[in-house]
Design a protein that fits this description.
binds zinc ion; binds 5'-O-[(R)-(carboxyoxy)(hydroxy)phosphoryl]adenosine; single chain; alpha/beta; five-stranded mixed sheet
Amino acid sequence: MIILGIETSCDETAVAVIKLNLDPGLRQDDIKPPKVLSNVISSQISIHQKYGGVVPEVAAREHVLNMVPVLNEALEVAKIKMTKIDLIAVTVGPGLITSLICGVETARALAFALNKPVVGVNHIAGHLAAPFLTNNIKFPALALTVSGGHTNLVLLKDYFNYKIIGETLDDAAGECFDKGAKMLGLGYPGGPAISKTATEWLPGLKLPRPMIGSGNFDFSFSGLKTALLYTLKKDKDYQKRLGNYAYELQTAIVETLVYKTIAAAKKYKIKNILLSGGVSANSSLRQGLEIAVHDQIRGGHLYLTALPYTTDNAAMIALAGYFQFKKKGFVSVAKLRANSNLTLTH
Ligand code: KG4
Ligand code: ZN
């Protein structure tokens, strides 16, 4: 089965073609990662960098310009003719509405013209599917999905049976990286900039680990950002210590994410832990969670998302689209709708 994925929820225009050699069905013993035939991403980062963040109307205009070239490149690299596609999967939300519409209308036009089935995929379901692109994963599993817009702990009973057990009450982990980097003058996107700048701990410099003692699995990162702001205001020479501030901010975010994930895994007795989303590109988080799973979960296994699939891409949307298609079938071309506030349901 050949699936075309389309992703335009934020500032990446992405199209991918994946192939499932063996129909894996939805049974655990049949799981087999697909072959990613192409995964083309046109990033707008350099355009938005001068504004310090994504400007929605600029992003939408760029998607319009990029969509056809990116689609053509994805098909060329995959060496697949449009008519050979069996299913079209497109992100319908959550995200920037004007950006989402570019992908949705492209998918609608293709599905109509080619007479192919189409599914509308939740962007977070895409991030949840990303580790399955390269791993054979056993269920039940617990996923930590951390991106610029979302911080979620999700229980997965199978491919398409989610239960959110924790989420952020305010800023997402990636947003905290981005806003912290802005305060430190490190530019956008903040995650990679903080990670590159981080050096070592400065004795006495301590930022909070938000909600670590809350007894639930929710997150809150806006207080951490404010704590950084006030700490910087008190330090006239903070420019000399950027490496220490970046280190402490990164450590506070990573420790909080790792602590809550391990606590949830213990409570729900889950051994298979998944890590995905843009922030999961962070090497401190990857290593920190790997060590914690190894040391604290008996028989535990951490399934990482391969780096090219951590930040927004269409291969993960194609695979999530396949899971959804197997479970719920496709939607009529006329019913496909973008929804910027879409929530994750199973
Ligand atoms: O998944 P993604 O591409 O888009 C959303 O769905 O939001 O995630 C983007 C986020 C940004 O906040 C970016 O700063 C963060 O992922 N990010 C990182 C790293 N690479 C990207 N955060 C920490 N460390 C990184 N290496
Ligand atoms: Zn994303």
